[in-house]
User: Which sequence fits this backbone?
C-alpha cells in the first residue's frame, strides 16, 4: 500500500478557504495542512512559470516524511513551443530546481493541449530528450541558459519517471503506445467526463491517473460507486495486473508484474470536491489519516 499515492492537483485555491482549509488558517500554511490530509500533490505552478530551487526545497521541507510530489512540466514546452526545438527549455526546467524535492520527487507530468495532434517523429525526438535519472537531468541543466543558485545541487539521486497526458484523438494510435513503452513513459489515464480521449494502456512500471470529474469537468464529485470503481482498478494495477475490461489503444498487453506504483490525483477543484474525494479514496485503502485542523478549529470533514 505504500506504493499507492492519492492526492490533489494543486493546493492553493480561494474557494477552499473556510471549507477544506479551516477559518483562520494562513495561506502559507496551506501546503502543510493539505499534505497531511493526502499522500501526494501535483505542483501546478511549474506549468505556468519556472520556479526556483529555493521554492522547491521549501515545499519539500513543509511536507511530512513519506510524502511525494508530481511536478507539472512547463506549458512553454508543450503548449507554446509544442515540442519545437525544446532541448534548451527542458534544460531550463531542470535547472529551475525540481530535483531539490529530493526523495519527495515523484513523476513529471507532461500535459499536451487538445489542439495538438500526434506526430510520431516529433514525439520520438521529445521522448529521447527526457532524462531517465537525476544524473542525466543534471547534465541537461548544465546546458540551461537560465541558471539558478543551487540548481545543480541534488540532495537525492534517483531514477526519474515521466507521464504524458494527451487530449487529441489522433493519439489513439498503437504507434504512440509503442513509443511510450520504448521509453518507459506512462500514459496518463485521464477521466474527463468524456471530453478528451481515455485509454488504460500500461506503458511503464507505474500508473498515473488524473480524475478531472466524471460527470462535469473540474466540478463533479465522485460518489461512493465511482470511488469504488477507482478503488478496484487502482488495487488491480498496484498488483501489477490489468483490469479485464481495460480500454486499450494497443491490444497487446504487457506481461504482468509483481506490482506497479500508482499515482492518482483529483483535479475536480471548482466545487471543493478534490481534497474530500482524495481523502475518501485513501480511506478505502486504509491509508487515510484524520483530516488535520487548525488550532481551535474542527477538522474539515464534509458529509
Assistant:
Amino acid at each position: 500500500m505504500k506504493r499507492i499515492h492519492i492526492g490533489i492537483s494543486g493546493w492553493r485555491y480561494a474557494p477552499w478557504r473556510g471549507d477544506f482549509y479551516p477559518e483562520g488558517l494562513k495561506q502559507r500554511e496551506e501546503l502543510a495542512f493539505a499534505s497531511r490530509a493526502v499522500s501526494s500533490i501535483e505542483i501546478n505552478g511549474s506549468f505556468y512559470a519556472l520556479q526556483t530551487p529555493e521554492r522547491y526545497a521549501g515545499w519539500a521541507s513543509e511536507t511530512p516524511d513519506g510524502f511525494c510530489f508530481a511536478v507539472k512540466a512547463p506549458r512553454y514546452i508543450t503548449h507554446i513551443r509544442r515540442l519545437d526545438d525544446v532541448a534548451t527549455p527542458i534544460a531550463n526546467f531542470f535547472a529551475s530546481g525540481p530535483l531539490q524535492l529530493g526523495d519527495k520527487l515523484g513523476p513529471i507530468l507532461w500535459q499536451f493541449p487538445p489542439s495538438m495532434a500526434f506526430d510520431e517523429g516529433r514525439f520520438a525526438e521529445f521522448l529521447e530528450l527526457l532524462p531517465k535519472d537525476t544524473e542525466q537531468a543534471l547534465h541537461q541543466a548544465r546546458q540551461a541558459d537560465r541558471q539558478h543558485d543551487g540548481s545543480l545541487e541534488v540532495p537525492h539521486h534517483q531514477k526519474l519517471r515521466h507521464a504524458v497526458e494527451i487530449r487529441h484523438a489522433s493519439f489513439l494510435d498503437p504507434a504512440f503506445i509503442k513509443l511510450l513503452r520504448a521509453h518507459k513513459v506512462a500514459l496518463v489515464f485521464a477521466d474527463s467526463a468524456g471530453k478528451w480521449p481515455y485509454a488504460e494502456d500500461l506503458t511503464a512500471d507505474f500508473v498515473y491517473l488524473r480524475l478531472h470529474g466524471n460527470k462535469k469537468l473540474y466540478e463533479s464529485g465522485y460518489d461512493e460507486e465511482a470511488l469504488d470503481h477507482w478503488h478496484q482498478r487502482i488495487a488491480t494495477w498496484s498488483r501489477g495486473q490489468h483490469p479485464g475490461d481495460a480500454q486499450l489503444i494497443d491490444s497487446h498487453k504487457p506481461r504482468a508484474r509483481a506490482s506497479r506504483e500508482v499515482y492518482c490525483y483529483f483535479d475536480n477543484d471548482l466545487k471543493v470536491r478534490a481534497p474530500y474525494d482524495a481523502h475518501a479514496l485513501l480511506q478505502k485503502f486504509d491509508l487515510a489519516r484524520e483530516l488535520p485542523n487548525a488550532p481551535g478549529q474542527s477538522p474539515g470533514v464534509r458529509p
